[in-house]
Write a structure and sequence with these properties.
heterodimer; A: 268 residues; alpha+beta; 2 domains; 4-stranded antiparallel sheet; 8 helices; 39% helix; 26% strand; elongated; B: 102 residues; mainly alpha; GvpL/GvpF family gas vesicle protein (chain A); gas vesicle (chain A); GvpL/GvpF (chain A); GvpK (chain B)
Amino acid sequence: MTDTLATWLYAVTAAPEDGTPPQGLTGVADEPVRLVEGAGLAAVVGSVPLADFDEDALRGHLEDLEWLERTARAHHRVINGAARHGQVIPLRFATLYHDDDRVRAMLRERREDFTDTLRRVAGRTEWGVKAYVDPRSFLPDPDESEDEGSPGTAYLMRRRAQRQDQETAHLRATERAEEIHSSLAALAVATAAHPPQDSALAAYEGWMVLNNSYLVPDDLTEDFTALVRALGERYPAVTLEVSGPWPPYSFTAPPKPAGDAQPEEKPS
Amino acid sequence: MTADRAPRPGRRIEVDEESVRKSLAGLVLTIVELLRQLMERQALRRVEQGGISDEQMEKLGLTLMALERNMAELREHFGLTEDDLNLDLGPLGPLLPRDRDP
């Protein structure tokens, strides 16, 4: 029987004093969510059928956008539910262990790491801010002077001007994004930059010039959202989108090999 | 659907001749467009370096202009848009820079 189930991890939290799992939560396989405790920590887990979640099955499923969306939402829902009971370290989608014993062993092994991380994110919340611009509003004013000479030369000049304008627009938009980022970062204890999303998947027009996460102390939440609004008003050419509160997805990743993007932490 | 279970002679691939023609044209035109853009970039670089005469510049400009017009005609002929002429190279992004990309 145990061979047919695996343990899917959602999050790690401090062990709750009363030891009760989050009530009424179901996970990626509609399974009830439970806690596996060890080393003063608790892993929020569910038992999922291997038939659907072993390596081969997962590889197939990950190609299926509909399955992926449904399951990713379930994963996030459990993390959010667990976060209502206290600070969590969200775990990466499709973190699977063979059984509960291995989960306990993992908790013991990484106890220090987890405890440090929990302490670091305690009383703080992740917010996402995206900024989009319409490149046209950053183009330099058209320069009417150049319409000299013969058609071939004029064509080349026009193309050159277009290219330069495009570069200028990008530079200006990036500078504006930098300004916005530094204002927001002043209220955050840590920031993380993400690559712009694929416009085909995220369905937006124009350029995404900012896609960052900010770890904001809970008592500054209102200041932070007010600042996003104020910046949006100050820079009408930039569309700002704030999302959250999120469990601290961007600030709890295990140490990665050098070369990967690391959140920047300011000494507090 | 059980009646359909009879052994079939291999797997059949539905081929719509028109769509194959269009995809092939799209692929070929994408490569031509890539070359055109590279040539244009190279031409602009040479203009900026100032190493060419006015006459050469005019000739280059006319050639590139004609090429752009030809491309537009070919696209229209095959019912393709500018966005169709691109390849998604996954993590490397699109083959051709799109206007809306930085």
